[in-house]
Amino acid sequence: MQLNVKRTSPAAVLPTYATPGAACFDIYPTDFEYDEKINAVIFETDLIFEIPEGYALMIYSRSGQGFKNDTRLSNCVGVIDSDYTGAVKVKLVCDRPTGEYPDFDMKKAIAQAMLVQAPQAVLTEVDTVKETARGANGFGSTDNKKA
Hints:
four-stranded antiparallel beta sheet, mainly beta, Deoxyuridine 5'-Triphosphate Nucleotidohydrolase, Chain A, globular, 147 residues
């Protein structure tokens, strides 16, 4: 499948898959700004993705950011819709108790992304829904389930 990517500046780095088996491709920054009011770092990518209709681009944190630097995507998962035509930005927050951010290497990826199918369902109001063995039992309800 082809995913068209437009660079909006010469500094923009085209995304890459790190290995042949990688599920996500890496996204690289071109610039960043620390926003003191919200204690977050906002990265520019200078990339616009032409997402096919019926798909969405999911942006995720890279695992090394959490394990090594205690940083993550501020909204945990970014969802880029197929009708969005602006440049993608990535906002990271730091979970260190001190709130101190690591030094970011601008040559390293700051996020990863995956193109996924995103069909729109027909939402239909009904008076009843089917019953299941679990029912409305929620948080932790399957912890004590017998094997």
